[in-house]
Amino acid sequence: MISSEYSKKKVKFLNKVVNGSTPKSSVEEYWDGEILWVTPEDLSKSDDPVIWGTKRQITPEGYSSCGTTMCPERSIVLSTRAPIGSLGIASASLCTNQGCKTIVPNEGVFSKYEFYQLSVESDSLNSLGKGTTFKELSSEDLKNFKLLNPPLETQKQIADFLDKETTRIDTLISKKQKQIELLQEKRQAIITQSVTKGLNENVKMKDSGVEWIGEIPEHWEVIPIKFLGKIQNGYAFDSNEFTTEGVRVMKISNIQTMRVDWEDESYIDNGYYQSLPQFRVYKNDLVFALTRPIISTGIKACIVDNDEEILLNQRNAVLRPSEKLNMKWMYYIIIDKVFTHIFEMEIDKTGQQPNISTSKIGNLKIPFPKKDEQNEIVEYLDRECGNVNFLIDKVSQSINLLKEYRSSLITHAVSDRIDITQYEVSK
Questions:
Q1: pTM confidence score
Q2: 132: three-class secondary structure by DSSP
């Protein structure tokens, strides 16, 4: 139960809420100045609660050209669109773009205490967001949002307590994240060693003739991907014909790094499945995204793992393996970080949208043992990577528990549901 001294007041009675704005991007003299200019990206990509710098800064001319406003040190910056709820505390005076609002505390309000309160109100703030293209939290809704407001000295005590405890929890989380990084490196080393050198340490080696591969077992080959199956581009369906039922269409948005994401669903009339058999996608097919910003961050490819009737949309390609290729072998090649680097080098980023052609993919060379050895190595990698993945999942679960505990601790502390003076003794 919340203490009687913890009154709830609207944000507008505790703070001044300030909007942001953006200078014209086409005017060079408005940019690359020394004025900190915060965007939602600055907030969402930082784990530090303090805003020490911003991706872009503006000049005095840029500041004067638009409706943004300078706010003082210790102000709280809140992203109010894409996403709603990311937070930061100003280390110096700054301004923001229109995707953020700055909360400038009045006298009697300790900004760090208010910061902690807002940090656990993300869901509530998101529920107030309105809009069709993207959700946005309005100034009016933010101003009317209610926050607890205990005496100033109590706010300071709670903030000091939470500074210490969240730092301790964050340190534990950081150590566990490092464990995950080390496990990922171990998994990558196992994959690279296995797909380029095999499992027999005593086998005689030869130069592969391909820089990224290096030496391979003497009895292995190096083969372009195009000789290991058929590569087929997708079909240019008219998006106006997409429906909510029928045959599923696999689009660029469905293809992620080694996984299928069906959140963006589209279907088309069943008749297309009969009339366009060459564009069907089957279980165990390897599908590549070929263009758009989705591949600007690297390879996007996945193995289809279900038996559903699927047709492939344009700007994607499918590799249907020949009998001599274990598709899981191709999977492990693709997630090898060295191959990924080679793939990324083939992406053309000179146009408006990055793209890679099926011919470039087909010409990429990979190490290739006979099918029985592929099967043996795949079985080994499934087992070893599975063991590593299990450990990664366990550590990830413990991180999630720590994050839940951190959020719960903040919620209980700011609302006087724990006695912070006794906490160190009792925990």
A1: 0.80
A2: coil
